[in-house]
Structure formats: C-alpha cells, structure tokens
Structure prediction request, 313 residues.
Amino acid sequence: MRLRSSDRLGRSRLRGQLPALRFLGAALVAAACAAPTADATDLRRGAGPTDGASTPGGPGDDASTGGGSSGTTPTPPPQPGTGDLKPGRTTVSWTAAGQARSVVLIVPSAITTQQVPLVIALHGNGDTATNFVATRGLEQLAESKGFVVAAPQGIVQDISVGGQQVNDVSWDAYRTPSAGNIDLALLEEIQAELVTPGGQIDAKRVIVFGYSQGGYLSFRYGIDASAKLACAAVVAAANPLGSAYVENATRKIPYALSIGANDFAVAQARAAKAALEAAGHPLQYREIAGAGHAPFPGSTAEPLDYCLEKSLP
Prediction:
C-alpha cells in the first residue's frame, strides 16, 4: 500500500493547529524522564521507568474432535510462516527516504511454530530505541505474548510546520513525504522488510505503538495506514493534526489511547477521543489518575493487550 498523502489538509488546517503547538511548547517543562538523554521541549519527552510485564496465560485447547461423519472437524494447528527470522535480538539497518535507519528487532520463540503479530515501537523524544525496549520491558513482553518488536531509532530533526519552527523532534508527525517527512517512509520500509505473503509475520496483525512524540506519529500513521494496520496504541500523546484529520482514515482502525490525567496534552487526548468516537473507531481510552507526562503513565502491557486482540478483516 502506498502512503496516503495529507497534502489536502492544506495550509489553513495546519495554521489552525498552531495554537496547540505553541501551547505544547510553553507547557513542556516537565519532569525528567528515566532516559538520561531525554529532553523537555515542545511535543517531546523520552521514556519512563520499567513496567512490570504481566505474565499471560497459555492458549486454550483447540475444539474437541468428534467421531464419525457427525463429529466436529478439529481446528488445524497453527503453522509457521517462511522466512529468515530466528528467535532472539538483533539490530538491523534499512534505508528509507535516502537515510540509513537502525531498527532493534526482537523475535519470540513462538515464531518457530506459528505466524506472529508485529509491533512497531516508537520511543519518545531524546530517547533511544534500545532504552525504550529496556525500560518498557518489550523484550519480555514479546516473548511472553508472542509478537515481534521492531523498534526503530528516531533521528533528531528541526522542522517547519505551517510556518512555525519545531526543533529537536525525534519523529516527524506533521509533514507529508513531499514536504520532507522521512519517518513515514521508515514505517513503510519496516513492513516491506518483515511482512510478506506466507511469511512469519501475520499480515493482519501489525500494530504501531508509541510514547510521547512517538505516540503522536503513531496516531498519525494509524490514520494514514488504517487499511493495513490492525490497531494503533498511543501513550502520552494525541492527534497531532487536528480532529478533521481522522476523516482521512479508510478503515475504522481501533485505537488504544492512554494519557496521564495531569499530562499537559490531556485536553488534546480528550479531543482525539471525541473525534475517534464520532467517526466510529473502536477505542480503549484511559486517563491514568495522578500521572503526568513522564514517567510513562500506566502499564505498557494494557494498550498492547488491547491491540493484540485486533485483526484486519
């Protein structure tokens, strides 16, 4: 699938988002994050401390087998796909939009027996993919719940949005590829590398999951790629392009949206909730009492559990 362009958003709609961008720039002098390199400027925050990864129960038994012609046909066991992914952790480099991009890959042992979901995990501003994986317990969750993690490393950028300069962001959640967005192409490249017909990744269960600035890009990409994503999980972030952008989705993609009740962006999150519900998108919405923007509010597992239950038709 080709990336959907948001060029029709138009300068006037972008201009309408500038008050929110300026508000975020003024509001973000938040608590320091767990990542030592995390910054504290507009639209940005790195990762928080480690969540305790919950331990799921095992899969249920298949349908019982019946005897004779009146018996129930047994459910065939899951089969592994074909490909080169092997259980373990590696770091790869792929080229997208002319840039070499590094991606931490975590592959669970379940891949040897069945196709598994893919979770594309996007860290917060000033953080690293390695630290995000570690502090969020993603390696343990991937193994226990049986999904592949692809955690790309963001590139710090200074971008112009509707005439306003936004500096030092790790992910571009605002511009179109034709205007210089290098991150949407990266998300497409990750899927092109990992999701193939009959391959090891279940093409109907691709999820994007992001925190803070990574969450803003996750929200935007959920709309852009709604036809081929199962779900989008957005934490401590919201819709970066305004409520009307939700109308660009070609499918009612489910969202898991989590935010601290004391987060500076909670009003944005509530507006995103209203827009998604009005458009008919399935939604898990949580405001975490007593939590701010950082550290990471609530559990890592909860929004992922919601999205892992989703699948494309």
About this structure: DSSP finds seven helices and ten strands in the chain.
